[in-house]
Protein 1
Amino acid sequence: MPRKLFIAGNWKMNTNAASARALAEALVEKIGSVEAVDLAVCPPFVYLSAVGEVLAASRIALGAQDVYYEDDGAFTGEVSTAMLKDVGCSYVICGHSERRHVIGETDELINRKLLKALGDGLRPILCVGELLEERRAEETLEVVRRQVQLGLEGVSGGDVDKVTIAYEPVWAIGTGVVATPEQAQEVHAMIREVLAQLYDQAIAEAMRIQYGGSVKPKNAEALLACPDVDGALVGGASLKADQFAEIVSKGLGG
Ligand code: PEP
């Protein structure tokens, strides 16, 4: 069965109460009834409820940008899976490159978060990707393989299909420098091979692997046409309803 494209917007630490709601309203108007592509947006924690209310009657799902692995207690500043579900999230990003490289999250911490999210019924988007120096040193495949293996440690074959992998080369995130379709396809195919080794071929074929890193309306079509690219995780362009909708329309073949 062909994999259904999945396009998600990561709003990062952007918007305010009014602009988050306005962006969600514009998205609902433009792409809220799209069925052929799965869609999600990941606003900042504090606007999840408000954005969730706007999205409620649409086909756009709500996701969070992070989660903590404990249920509750003395973890100042953290947010639990139950809280995310309470406000209507179905997805959560785990291990975004800014959390790995700005905040300092390790593969072990990301794995704990992913396991907790999965166990509590959220769908994790596991981000992986190499630094520029790692690509230059020809370590891309090794780095990404390790991140996929460690990120999925302890995830059973029965659960892994609820995980989306997002390949996001760090040098392409927020830089305007996008991976070529050939570069993206090479790494996506390798990730699928790793999934086949960790699980089996059927599971690997069913799993969705998004590309992320400076996806814009002008480059989305060629990236989404790659055989192993099953969608996109979009940062900057997801803050503009027109641009995000145009990326979605490229996914619809338009
Ligand atoms: C991201 O935040 O995951 C991302 C890919 O950002 P951008 O599209 O801005 O590069």
Note: The first strand starts at residue 6 and ends at 10.
Protein 2
Amino acid sequence: MKRLSIKNRMALWYAFSILAIILLTMALLLAVGDSLILDETEKNLMSLTDRAVRDVRITDGALSIDEDITYYNDGAYVVVCRDDGTVISGLLMEGFPPLSDFSENEIRKVPGDGRNYYTYDRLIENRKTGRIWVRGMTSAELSDMAPSAMKMLYGFLIALPVLFVLAMAGGWMITRQAFAPLSRIIDTAESIRQGGDLSARIGLGDVHDSDEIRRTAAVFDEMLDQIENDFENEKRFTNNASHELRTPVAVIKAQSEYALDNPDDPEEIRESLQEIKKQADSMASLIEQLLRLSRADRGIEQLKKEPADISLIAEEAASRHLQYARTKNITIRTDAEEGCYMPCDAVFIGRMFDNLIDNAVKYGTEGGTVDIIVRKEDAGIAVKVADNGIGIAEKDLDHIWERFYRADRERRTDSAGEDARSMGLGLPMVQWIVREHGGTVKAVSALGKGTAFIIFFPY
Ligand code: ADP
């Protein structure tokens, strides 16, 4: 069986709760009211009969009835009659059965013409007149005893279905309103599932909303932002990676075909093989860097932090680049304060320096300088890698941390544009390493004058 929606279940719950409360109240009112009404009716019947008895006199064997005798009061009637049921005086109720079957001082319920009656009999005994009965009678029907209570009851019975429908409609509307955001969440999720459009948002409330459903919607939207962002990054990353691999693969293909076409020319074959090796090296380096970044992204690149001297790591990295710097006649100067210890992963910090110095040389100008400075400060260790090379344009400065971003390639053809190692992955790795060590990194640059990377590792 199909389950009812929460909306309908709640509306039904409201309606039935209200119905139960009304019915319970009515039953209670009736139970209490009924006995109260009955009590009143009996009292009235007895007092009317007793008063009438006092007005019936027998003097010297002669029966006389006071003129001011009351035969009727508030629905109760009194009749004076003989033992055989002959009426002497009084008022008989319409539909009341023939007067018989008397019983002294007792309230009894007797059936009559289509309805029930209460009777109350008093006996006056006299030898001369015989047994004289004073009978009080009143209707035993609630409609006669308390007509207004009955009217109220009927009113209630008529109003009940109306109240039930109103309660149900009200409950349904309130829950519908409360659940409206939930429907939007479902619609949005459905549209994303069907159309794959990750830009769809629910657009309700914010994460601090006191309404739980609206807060859920806001958190859901934030999660979608994150997923869309990650998805876009992933797409860009895959596009860029395949684009980067396409060129070396095309060169390798062309060179190998060329070599195969010239089997008798060892010199041509040698040149082709050299080019193939260069491209293969470039691909290996790209794959290596991609793997490292992907491991960093997935959080499986574990840092092994131990106290190490940053100055020493900087000096070692500088010496690794001396030969490369010499090819461009660039001087590397290291000014590293002794004993700049901090807990770090020496391999990764070494890689950070390698990337920065490599860039400084790569984008440095012939005969230029690269300065590496490491200083102990009160709050932490400050590092600076500066060059007086080609610099970075203002518009590129914000993007250099993005994967595969390479600024102004045309302008660099004379210095580093042709460099197979330029893949736009060095700085993202630097940024990741610095962040993993709780530090900050920024680039300051002036086009044509040089660039400085300033890093700070707080203690
Ligand atoms: P790449 O492999 O291209 O060097 P990076 O991520 O290391 O990739 O650097 C991204 C871009 O930032 C470089 O392509 C270059 O345009 C710019 N850049 C980085 N360092 C320097 C520098 N010292 N001087 C000038 N430009 C730089």
Note: The two ends are 65 Å apart (CA to CA).
Protein 3
Amino acid sequence: MKKILVANRGEIALRVMKTAKKMGIKTVAVYSTIDRQSPHVKFADEAVLIGEAPSNKSYLLGNKIIEVAKSLNVDAIHPGYGFLSENADFAEACEQNNIIFIGPKSHAIRIMGSKLAAKDAVKSYNIPMVPGTDEAITDIADAKKIAANIGFPILIKASAGGGGKGMRIVEKESEFESQMDRAISEAVNAFGDGSVFIEKYVASPRHIEIQVMADTHGNYIHLFERECSIQRRHQKVVEEAPSSVLTPELRSKMGEAAVNVAKACDYVGAGTVEFLLDEHHNFYFLEMNTRLQVEHPVSEIITNTDLVELQIKVANGEKLPMQQKDLKITGHALELRVYAEDPLNDFLPSVGTLETYKLPEGKGIRVDNGFEEGMEIPIYYDPMISKLITYGNTRDEAISLMKQAISDYDIKGIETTLPFGTFVCEHDAFRSGNFDTHFVKKYFSAEKMKLQHEKEAKIAALIALKHFNDEEKQLRVPN
Ligand code: MV4
């Protein structure tokens, strides 16, 4: 493999190109008019303008990107996450044009893009799943009986949904029909597919996902778990690896289940298998994401691997360079997604220019960044500016480093989720490891964050005052 086109922008485009460069592979960037000056464009060996700012006029134009790839003799396309990364037709079009798609085969993307097809595919592998229906609901009266058997509350999910899209809680039987009607028409509108199914509602779960990797020679490994329960409206904000609740036994059971999910769809490349973990530590398969995920760095750190390098090797037909027995967890890693959003104002997008933009640095700190001082945050794309990642021997060390790194990260001109990161790192529930997917809803408010910051500021002031007084005393000692 000599040349890779990265069909993405921002931090992930840079992150992929850095590994390509390390491997001696040339890189091609594509960009929209608003991204002309972006770091990913400057970093690449070649860069091609593909269209206007809106994604559907640039980063989503699969055919145009393939044309660019062909004209520049590109061997492979890395799709990053979002955009074309889980588009089975795009993966197929790449192959038809003799370009390697760095990701799974379209077949696996299609199966996992349908929750019902996914459940069906894993059927013979004994994967634990939440009690519910495994076929699209056609008869509402029948479904109501099943729901009553499962017990309320239940959840209606759209088969074509995922990541929290197209879900509806039904608290009691009397609401079942009306909620079902709504769920179906929503699914038709949002996905063009009205297939829905029901599941028992797991009330206070943790969201734990397993990183898997497979090559084209039938080898499968998992790279342990990521804890992703700190999320807001299905948008993850803080992730970590390993999870503080998994025992070695549970970890290897979930890892094995994840590998089986990958086997069930002949998976190739890097993928993530999502599970819910209930309060009794039962785990249930939810869905598989057939891309490299935003939060992959925490897995890289605790396993000492480069997942993009593995993706490229596997896409090139090479065998995975390690087996399951070679993998172990070392240390602890945390990731904070730094969004251009204002946590004091309901996380509304904060538009503006990065007047000051200085990254924290030092041992145990990694920043996967896509911006530079003076740049504007475009409104057309996801508002994530960077990922702040810290790591140490222990979870406490990673948390302390995160607080330090947040305070060393100098961003002026826009509001960001950095202060939210401090809030999380200082919260007792987070520090103790005793939290679930309701953390933000349960504990966070703008008021509480302000109070916490005032308290911290007071403590800092008192410490400074004490130092000052101590020094004064010393100065006054007569000699
Ligand atoms: C659930 C659930 C409770 N019970 N399924 C949300 C994202 C999608 N992957 C599945 N999701 C959920 N499915 C059952 N049967 C709760 C969630 C859920 C959730 C899951 C992971 C992370 C955050 C979440 C926030 C709200 C709901």
Note: The mean pLDDT is 96.
Protein 4
Amino acid sequence: MSQYDLVVIGAGPGGYVAAIRAAQLGMKVACVERESLGGTCLNVGCIPSKALLDSSERYYAARHQLSRHGIRLEGVSLDLAALMKRKDEVVKQLAGGVGFLFRKNKVEHLPGHGKILGPGRVEVTARGVPPRVVQARNILIATGSAPSEIPALRFDGAHILSSTEGISLREVPTKLIVVGAGYIGLELGSVWSRLGSEVLVLEFLDGVLPSSDRECANALQKSLEKQGLKFRFQVTAQKAEVAGGKVKVHWTSRDGRETGVEAADKVLVAVGRRPVTDNLGLESVGIRLDARGFIPVDERFRAAEGVYAIGDVIGGIMLAHKAEEEGVACVELLAGRSGHVNYACCPSVVYTHPELASVGFTEEQCKSQGLAYKVGRFPMTANGRAKGMDETEGFVKILADARTDRVLGVHILSAHASDMIHECVAVMEFHGSSEDIARGFHAHPTLPEAIKEAALAVDGRAIHA
Ligand code: NAI
């Protein structure tokens, strides 16, 4: 029987990164994965959706924006098959890259479904080969999450879609209903809207992106409305009926007073994700799930003696980079080092146009915690580079402690916000102040100058606004 120091179950960004780091630290490591390497993020999540966002943004620009730059195009048309093929190639190359990294670091990939049989024992089952049991000094569960379903809108893969099908359509739907104005709803709603669909988003709450800074989320909503997305808030999608190649979605207003039906070619249900723990053998090591189905862990990510868990399956913010940091911290602690995850500095990005990138507290959180804070804002319209790029939508908002000036949160609504937020993450990691940002050089002309100006604005001394 093969013996390992660590057997990781799941090769998503949490699991594969943990496996590589553990191998770097001298452990003999295997990683069990039943689908292709890279998990949800790489195969059906972050990576393919961003490839589609980038392609659709170019198509949209060709049709609606390039003429402003003096570029005249005629006969612009969409080759959806080629667009999807490029996306699939990006995914294939990156999944191959994970396999290469495994070989380079001597991490053994065990293809199949991993199930814990008891302390230190993992069974790997794959089609066409007899089940195999391996021995593990430690087991790390990194099985991630799957799309949540609404009971009366069960995914059928053809008309009622999860994000997995929502990134692989063969035709642009004439009308698409999106249930949920969260990350996935807005990103995939944007993709299909840019490619020509009429998109209607049904959302239970009062606005888009419930956990984001309200001012920024509301501004993003307005921008998406200008791009053509339609929203209906305070409604619950109740059920869907498929007939004659169309889908009808029944909704009820939150106060129960109003009901309605919307017909479309497809409905994309994006109402959150649930942890994946089925057939993992958790009971064999005494792990009991919490009320929401997550695996409870202690501060060292320990779920049971010799069993650890990280990423979406333990709850918290469901982001690939959160899983990666947890995976690294977990195996570093296992190796006797001092792994640590600073959740307070975990950035999040919604890859719409403009993008919304955030780190730290929202203004609502500052208020609810009774913090005395100052706000510095700077509009992208006043940034020279943004003007040159024709990307003047949005603003930078910095929240700083009124007494100490320590940065509490930063929210950037702008093109390329995802590339800009990391300066603020670094400053917050070092407990820096808005003054630190304001005094630091920012190359001219660049979009990040807007961050410097917002930092100056905290103290009422922005230069260009
Ligand atoms: P989400 O939690 O972001 O948003 C779900 C939305 O659906 C909420 O606003 C909720 O109020 C609404 N909702 C729930 N039930 C409803 C109903 N019956 N009718 C109408 N509205 C309803 O979930 P989403 O977008 O599915 O994303 C799942 C996870 O994936 C998130 O936790 C996110 O962190 C992650 N993700 C991250 C991305 C990124 O980092 N850019 C991109 C895509 C996903």
Note: The mean pLDDT is 97.
